[in-house]
Amino acid sequence: MAVAENPIGGKDFVETLIPQRFPFVMVDKLYSYSETELISGFTIQSNAIFLEKDNFLESGIIEHMAQSVALHTGYQFYLRNEQAPTGYIGSVKDIVIHKLPKLHDEIRTTVSILQEFGGITLVDVVTKLNDVEIAKGQMKTVLAK
Q: FRET label pair with 13: which of 20, 29, 52, 74, CA 20 to 30 Å apart?
């Protein structure tokens, strides 16, 4: 999938698609979507709760990844004109973080769906800063019944 420069939706739209609310929102742009892939963005602001001494912490990157997965599900349901169910992180595996982004940096995460069955989704997630990979891993999410 080509990297889009203009988002499909910005902060206000994205917040309607995920269950998190300020100050816990770690995605503010939706760049591209397909059934098997999504690219999200997040520009780190001074009020970000995982910001410490101008560094966006590991926990913030992992939460951004998880919310990017939630955004994929939320947008999928939005396209079907249905209310998205709440999801939970079932597992986090093989997370590697190479670099912490800074205040005002924009990180972009690609979510690639590996498997989806019975409300359980397995994904690869890759986060980049200026087109350079800074974090990656796998997540399993579970939709609430």
A: 52
